[in-house]
Design brief:
Layout: E1 7-10, E2 13-17, H1 29-32, E3 35-40, E4 43-48, E5 55-61
Antiparallel strand pairs: 1-2, 2-5, 3-4, 4-5
């Protein structure tokens, strides 16, 4: 947690989850699912290959 947001680091960057993840996702989705961050037309999003229609807004913390 950082500034009240869930946070993770990858490749030297720190990401903050802005959107809440769906309640129906498993309790350990972040450790077991194949996820990736990609840029869409209006910002960066976390995508989960197990639930491709859901995208979670993230911000990069420097």
């Amino acid at each position: 947690m950082y500034l009240g947001y869930p946070r993770f680091e990858y490749g030297g960057y720190s990401f903050l989850l802005v959107d809440p993840w769906p309640e129906y996702w498993s309790a350990n989705w972040y450790a077991s699912d194949d996820v990736y961050v990609d840029y869409d037309y209006d910002g960066y999003y976390l995508f989960d290959r197990n639930d491709p229609q859901v995208r979670l807004a993230v911000t990069i913390a420097l």
